Amino acid sequence: MKFVLASASERRQELLRRILPEYEIMVSSFDESLIPFRGDESAYVMELSRSKSHSVRNLFEDSKDVLIIGSDTIVSLDGTIYGKPADREDASAMIRSMSGKWHSVYSGISITSADGITDSSFSVRTDVKFMEMTDDEMEDYLDTLDWAGKAGGYGIQGESSKYIEEIRGDYYNVMGLPLNALYKNLKELDILG
């Protein structure tokens, strides 16, 4: 079986190696803006991840021995979805809104075989609380540029880690790939022994 990760995320690539030591990377060209958020975070991230895995699946023309893993992660606070910040100002608004509050991180995972026989999606939610940050702490954090390219403007394993007060759920989900849930799903699909 040949495995393909449909993601450019270095964090996902690093984490997936803990389950699948060998896989290829083929970044999806799917335009996420084509899928509107309809109020259900879980359904939304599953639809995003499914669309990414399907766009890569289309490149393999019914190969029977190829399995594509698509993933997407979002941050949600009070019904507002935070993707990757466009710039420092956007990141600042995200971090300020989450300061001192709980928010939820959702990852959608889709496992799709190139021949379409396997097509499974699931989502995982983790709740995270930032401490109440001072203006100086926020500016110091923004200066690190650690927010760039990360849903919600932070990576739990990076510079923001000292501001994380509490977490409920899967830490790796917040990094972008819920390892245990993915491992279990691959076992249930008889892909892993």
Automatic annotation (TrEMBL):
Location in or out of the cell: Cytoplasm
Record-listed E.C. numbers: 3.6.1.9
Positions marked as site (Important for substrate specificity): R11, T73, Q157
Residue positions of the active site: D72 (proton acceptor)
Broad class of where this protein is predominantly found: cytoplasm
Named cofactor requirement(s): a divalent metal cation
Signal peptide: none
Domain of life: Bacteria
One of the Pfam families matching this protein, by short name: Maf
Catalysed reactions, as listed in the record: dTTP + H2O = dTMP + diphosphate + H(+); UTP + H2O = UMP + diphosphate + H(+)
The UniProt record lists the keyword Coiled coil: no
Gene3D superfamilies: 3.90.950.10
Entry function: Nucleoside triphosphate pyrophosphatase that hydrolyzes dTTP and UTP. May have a dual role in cell division arrest and in preventing the incorporation of modified nucleotides into cellular nucleic acids.
NCBIfam families in the cross-refs: maf
Name the UniProt record assigns to this protein: dTTP/UTP pyrophosphatase
Lineage: Bacteria, Bacillati, Bacillota, Clostridia, Eubacteriales
